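Protein modeling request. Please complete all fields; requests missing the sequence field cannot be processed.
Requester role: graduate student
Desired output: 3D structure, token encoding
Chains: 1
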Amino acid sequence: MVEDLIRRFTPTPIKKQLNLEGTTVALETNSAALAARLPASPAGPVTNFSKEAVTWRVVAETDTPATDILNSCTRLTSDGMAFVSVGLQGFFAYDRHLRTGIAFIPEDVVNNESLFQTVFLPSLVSVMKGLI
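Delivered output (132 residues):
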């Protein structure tokens, strides 16, 4: 069997609904630490994500160090698509037309309060809102 080097099939069994700057976000992740850091939205059960919600799949990689997170960043946007790299190992990508995003990030970004507040949340919001 061929190894899935880009981890396309990494399960993201943890589901959470939250509100980020007025936008309902249906988030799926493999990281309990990430789910615990994000405030839950009081609107509706997490098993019935609204069709109005923005969907995000976030894979936190435990075997990837957060190298050059603050020094290396690439931002691209074109025709409703947005992309932000975080460091050398992570990225956020979002399709505004489909209202769907995916992110692969080092687990260190989730576990470090400073990186979570200065890298993770701003990157997630900026690609979603087209602020890049």
